[in-house]
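Trying the structure run again after the queue cleared.
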Amino acid sequence: MRYAARLAKNNRVEKFRVFAIVINTPPLHRLDPIQLFMKFFYGVMVCAFLLAHSAFGQGSPEQKFMGQNGEQILQQMASKYAAVNSYRDTGEVHVNLKGLKPSVTNTFNTYFVRPDRYRFEWYTAGSDDAKWNVIWSNSGSFYSLDASGVREREYRSGRTISTAASVSRGASQTVAALLTTGIGGFRLSQLDRVSLLRKETFEGKLCYVVRGFHPLGFAVELWITADDSLLRKIRQINNDGSFQEEIRRNIVVDEPISPNTFEYKARKMGVKTVA
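Done. Tokens:
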């Protein structure tokens, strides 16, 4: 038995040979009942040893995935967004401050058609100016609305996105920067120390929950759907435990979006005006 166990430990390929040594020598018809029982018992013990050794050495696929592939999932997500021809979604930004009830601070819609048509519109809850705000890009030109609702052409698209990001709590930039290199700023694919935390179902979608760290040091967690590599939720965690969540719903990729979406035309959305 020690010889058999040594073979099993040193070389997994030998495991079937070891099992044969234990079971087939000597022939069964020469054994009395006690010897037969002991032979069977030893065979079971060797099989258990081999299975335990194999499991310890290899680990389950989930263990391997959680230990090694957080970065891979993140890059698969980035590649997905870089390859889509069109994208649209709806979403919300939630703020969770310590000691206060969670609140929805922004509601938004995103539209994108490659190579450079982009529209982001948002409404800030509780603002004195109860209307939708919008920025959009068409054929290389970027536009926004001034305080009076008049269209203005923006000559520095990066500044336009940054300004919108400051009031939309980053929602105007997070996905836009993944969709096109024409929109600058920090990209989620640039997170440091990326790891896979767990699998979790979020709003009916099985997601990988990936954590990374922003260059400024705070943690960012991403909920990325397992079947299509799309981003469903972003959580930015502050040092005091408070956090902000950006949730993306009704995501549609590679489906037609009307060209009129990227043209200036005043319209009404309830009591809120949007370009």
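The mean pLDDT is 75. Worth checking whether this holds up in the mutant runs.
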